[in-house]
Design brief:
Family: Belongs to the ammonia transporter channel (TC 1.A.11.2) family.
Distance between the termini: 86 Å
Largest sheet: 2 strands, antiparallel
Number of domains: 1
Shape: globular
CATH architecture: Orthogonal Bundle
Keywords: Ammonia transport, Cell membrane, Glycoprotein, Membrane, Transmembrane, Transmembrane helix, Transport
Number of helices: 20
InterPro entries: Ammonium/urea_transptr (IPR029020), Ammonium_transpt (IPR001905), Ammonium_transpt_CS (IPR018047), NH4_transpt_AmtB-like_dom (IPR024041), RhesusRHD (IPR002229)
Protein name: Ammonium transporter
Organism: Vigna unguiculata
Helix content: 55-70%
Structural class: mainly alpha
Strand order of the largest sheet: 1-2
Oligomer: single chain
């Protein structure tokens, strides 16, 4: 009696090349990264800002998440991961066809562009459907825009933000993603960006700082006193961000393999170390540990390990945590006060320090500490190694520095041009009357109904900056206005 063919052989839902474990992990990792934005950063933003900006800040994150997804599948995925148009940009096209989405996911072709003494190795194709990769990479694109939003909270015109999101995704994010991940010139040159230290964090930090400059500052009263309206909810959002980072870095190998496990362990080690170092510095200089400061330290640790999570040993993750808990702390607390440019630009949540500085630090440390055996497990260019391990490591560090300069310059220029173009049609900053009132004026909604129906905003009663001028923590004036004299 003839037996029925195996399940995998006759159902298109399970083709021969599909590895169900890899596919399950990739979808899980994508969901974890998605949860970092929705609801992670939505909750964090809504609670870390002044009460009158809770709804607006949450909505900016919510809108970006939805808008990026539609732009991603209609055009941007293939600009970042499709066929080459320029050495730094892919050809845009929809990623919606059934045949495309159920096909096997592809990695960039291995073409040797540079005669630099290295050889590109043949990379294994991911053993899951293209649909899994499209969604996984979407969550990275979305969180980049949401992180960028942290620089302009509390004053950017919501209509300008709605126009900015798709334009920045098209003209800025896709360039960095293609150049470093999608088969562009930095990818083939051998620059290491394991999971987005440059593509996501350096980009969002530089672009956010640039946007803050062009949008302009918050009201003087908001900038001088910007206390979080709910520290416990802020911790909940921060916790979602931390736990979601296991998918952020663990999904980078495109497989449920040993490298994914190493990345998850290193990610958590670095974040914990950085949080403890940052908190210790707060205690030393401010005599008390700050919860907001601890969240900032957690963030810089997560960012710093990202470009090398699966490529460094765990002792190196501790070293990176020590540096990510101290160097961004110094730029935020000391350098900020001494720099006239940093003082002039109102970066509401200190995204420049927590993402640009920490992302650059992580990329350069990866160029120093990337372990050769781990590099061979996943990188397309052989002979990759950190300078600490000798050989061609010094060249690797130089590559990391050049790539950082490219990403910084592109985001500075592209963000400026996009905002100047929008300004022709939409004011970038809200009018002062809306800035005085906040959510009720902008959205007709408020986060907390703390007074009676129909009661109007009264600055003598409802503006906390007029009531309490004492500051129990150096962080209550915003996420980056807390400087010290040494």
């Amino acid at each position: 009696m003839a037996t029925a063919p195996a399940y995998e052989e006759h159902l298109p839902a399970a083709p021969r090349w599909l590895n169900k474990g890899d596919n399950a992990w990739q979808l899980t990792a994508a969901t974890l990264v998605g949860l970092q934005s929705m609801p992670g950063l939505v909750i964090l933003y809504a609670s870390i800002v002044k009460k009158k900006w809770a709804v607006n800040s949450a909505f900016m994150a919510l809108y970006a998440f939805a808008a990026v997804l539609i732009c991603w599948v209609l055009l941007c995925y293939r600009m970042a991961f499709g066929d080459k148009l320029f050495p730094f940009w892919g050809k845009g096209a929809p990623a919606l066809g059934q045949k495309f989405l159920i096909s096997q996911a592809k990695v960039p072709e291995t073409t040797h562009y540079f005669n630099n003494g290295t050889v590109e190795s043949k990379m294994s194709e991911p053993f899951f459907a293209m649909a899994s990769l499209v969604y996984f990479q979407f969550t990275f694109a979305a969180i980049t825009l949401i992180l960028l939003a942290g620089s302009v909270l509390g004053r950017m015109n919501i209509r300008a933000w709605m126009a900015f999101v798709p334009l920045w995704l098209i003209f800025s994010y896709t360039v960095g993603a293609f150049s470093l991940w999608g088969g562009g010139f930095l990818y083939h040159w051998g620059v290491i960006d394991y999971s987005g230290g440059y593509v996501i964090h350096l980009s969002s930090g530089v672009a956010g700082f640039t946007a803050a400059y062009w949008v302009g500052p918050r009201l003087k009263s908001d900038r001088e006193r910007f206390p979080p309206n709910n520290v416990l909810l802020m911790l909940a959002g921060g916790g979602l961000l931390w736990m979601g980072w296991s998918g952020f870095n663990g999904g980078a190998p495109y497989a449920a393999n040993v490298d994914a496990s190493i990345a998850v362990v290193n990610t958590n080690i670095c974040a914990a170390t950085s949080l403890l170092v940052w908190t210790s510095l707060d205690v030393i200089f401010f005599s008390k540990p700050s919860v907001i400061g601890a969240v900032q330290g957690m963030m810089t640790g997560l960012v710093c390990i990202t470009p090398g999570a699966g490529l460094v040993q765990s002792w190196a993750a501790i070293v990176m945590g020590i540096l990510s808990g101290s160097i961004p702390w110094m730029t935020m607390m000391i350098l900020h006060k001494k720099s006239s440019l940093l003082q002039k630009v109102d970066d509401a949540l200190g995204v420049f320090h927590t993402h640009a500085v920490a992302g650059l630090l992580g990329g350069l440390l990866t160029g120093l500490l990337a372990e050769p055996e781990l590099c061979r497990l996943i990188l397309p260019v052989t002979n990759s190694r950190g300078a600490f391990y000798g050989g061609s490591g010094g060249v690797q560090f130089l590559k990391q520095l050049v790539a950082a300069c490219f990403i910084t310059a592109w985001n500075l220029v592209s963000t400026t041009l996009i905002l100047l173009a929008i300004q022709f049609f939409i004011p970038l900053r809200m009018p002062d009357d809306q800035l005085e009132i906040g959510d009720d004026a902008v959205h007709g909604e408020e986060a907390y109904a703390l007074w009676g129906d129909g009661e109007k905003y009264d600055p003598t009663r409802h503006d906390s900056s007029r009531v309490d001028k004492t500051s129990p923590s150096p962080y209550v004036n915003g996420a980056r206005g807390f400087t010290i004299d040494l």
